[in-house]
């Protein structure tokens, strides 16, 4: 179970971030955000965006998509709501306050579930992944973009060295890709179809259709 105090502190943090978030992150996050949105749109029209924040990703969706965005922070959602109105983003069908660990939608409602720069902030990431799994249709994808670290490889030492800098700018330095792929493997219902490279990574987990599982 998520710790209520943690949720309250996240809300306070993002109430403050809401005013300046876009100025700082709009350009920085655009590449992985576009990649994640493109992958989601390729799975189908019904898409759930968890931790949608100020809605920086929303303009990247195809006009024929049906996107619902949820977030813990009402202040971040207010900014997203203004964006939807000013940019006339008709494909955004709803924005609502919701915890990633308690998703209020019926099972198998969405063709894709995206979680961009949020999974590292959730204390029980596996519970959030379980909720994403529940609301995802078979054949759909969970698409995570975030600051994620490799378990090894040529850059592992460099990322470890940069960890204090990561923490200083508010990024997780120790959320490993294998935490996502390990969860996927343990369910027996997912295949990892993509692991991006670089500082910000996109990881795509495809839920097997019933006949494949
Ligand atoms: C770094 S921002 C990312 C916003 C947006 N996804 C983006 O890519 O620009 C993290 C967002 O996750 C939200 N968040 C944090 N914990 C959450 C939770 N447990 N459930 C839902 N949203 C959460 C925050 O309120 C914030 O809006």
Topology of this protein?
Elements: H1 4-17, H2 21-25, H3 30-43, E1 46-50, E2 66-71, H4 74-86, E3 92-97, E4 110-116, H5 125-135, E5 136-147, H6 156-161, H7 163-168, H8 177-187, E6 190-195, E7 200-207
Bound molecules: S-adenosylmethionine.
S-adenosylmethionine binds next to helix 1.
Strand order of the largest sheet: 3-2-1-4-5-7-6
Give the fraction of residues assigned to helices.
25-40%
Which value, in Å, is the CA radius of gyration? Answer: 16 Å
Q: SSE order in H/E notation?
A: HHHEEHEEHEHHHEE
Return residue spans where pLDDT drops below 50 for at least 5 consecutive residues.
none
Rough outline: globular
Mean pLDDT: 92
Intertermini distance: 28 Å
- Report the sheet with the most strands, covering strand number, pairing sense and barrel closure: 7 strands, mixed
Number of helices: 8
CATH class bucket: Alpha Beta
Query: Oligomeric form of this entry?
Result: single chain
Total discrete domains: 1
Given helix and strand content, the structural type is alpha/beta
Bound molecules: S-adenosylmethionine
Strand percent estimate: 15-25%
The overall strand count is 7
Query: CATH superfamily membership, which one?
Result: Vaccinia Virus protein VP39
Q: Under the CATH scheme, which architecture would be assigned? A: 3-Layer(aba) Sandwich
């Amino acid at each position: 179970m998520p710790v209520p105090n943690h949720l309250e502190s996240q809300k306070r943090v993002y109430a403050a971030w809401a005013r300046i978030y876009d100025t700082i992150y709009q350009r920085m996050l655009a590449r992985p955000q576009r990649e994640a949105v493109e992958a989601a749109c390729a799975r189908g029209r019904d898409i759930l965006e968890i931790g949608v924040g100020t809605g920086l990703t929303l303009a990247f969706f195809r006009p024929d998509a049906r996107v619902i965005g949820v977030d813990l922070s009402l202040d971040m959602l207010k900014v997203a709501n203004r964006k939807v109105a000013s940019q006339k983003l008709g494909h955004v069908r709803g924005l609502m306050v919701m915890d990633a660990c308690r998703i209020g939608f019926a099972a198998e409602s969405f063709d894709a579930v995206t979680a961009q720069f949020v999974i590292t902030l959730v204390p029980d990431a596996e519970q959030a992944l379980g909720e994403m799994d529940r609301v995802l249709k078979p054949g759909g994808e969970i698409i995570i973009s975030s600051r994620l670290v490799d378990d090894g490889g040529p850059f592992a030492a460099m990322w470890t060295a940069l960890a204090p800098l990561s923490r200083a700018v508010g990024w997780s330095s120790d959320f490993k890709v294998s935490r996502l792929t390990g969860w996927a493997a343990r369910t027996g219902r997912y295949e990892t179809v993509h692991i991006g490279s670089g500082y910000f990574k996109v990881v795509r987990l495809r839920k097997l259709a019933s006949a494949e599982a």
